[in-house]
Amino acid sequence: MSAALIGGLALPAQAEELTLGGSATFTTDYVFRGISQTMQNPAVQASIDASYGIFYAGMWGSNVDFGGGPFGQDIANLEIDYYAGITPEWKGISFDFGALYYTYPGAYDPGGEFDYWEFKTAASYTFGEAFTVGVSNYWSPEFFGETGDADALELSGEYAFSNKLFNFFTPSVSGLVGWQWVDQGVDYTYWNAGLTLGFMENWSADIRYWDTDIGDATCGGPNCDARVVGTISASF
Length: 236
Hints:
Elements: H1 2-15, E1 18-27, E2 31-32, E3 35-36, E4 43-52, E5 55-63, E6 78-86, E7 89-90, E8 93-103, E9 116-127, E10 131-140, E11 150-160, E12 170-182, E13 188-199, E14 203-212, H2 216-219, E15 227-235
Antiparallel strand pairs: 1-4, 1-15, 2-3, 4-5, 5-6, 6-8, 7-8, 8-9, 9-10, 10-11, 11-12, 12-13, 13-14, 14-15
């Protein structure tokens, strides 16, 4: 009886296991909500993730370029983000409730603290194993540069083709439209659309068009202009 009881208690623990993974990415421009974070130059990015059942955590990093300070120093050249959350499901709807902490190690930020928190609430649903629609909201109590309360709402869609292209690529098309509101900043709309080609199981190539409704004068330069971004990434 004791052996049976111990075995029964062990079964739920065996149903879940810790999974580790990560990614490496090269992109022609690091675009965040429609705005270039690298002065329209390339970026190298990497992530490492851990998941256990519905729980996940990880960290992500990229080079950035926020221009020069008053004494010729770089304002920021590195971003490292930390995140954790849960991904429950209910009646075919996938949810994501998480927290993200954006950091800029070594940044020169006399005008306000760059590091900030965001809290994510998202849901998505897939129709017929091909077409996925989603909605995401990111709320920050004190946004980048201490600009106050901020909120970003995004609507997205993706269609994954069932047939391979040239018997090698697994294609999908996707798009997104988002709105950003900041207490002491610029409220604006951003959007993207692109084609992703998966290959060799863990690799993907993406070509994407980005744009915003922010003018050069408001943006302080061309970093908010329309652009086409190419990205190649590998996951493990």
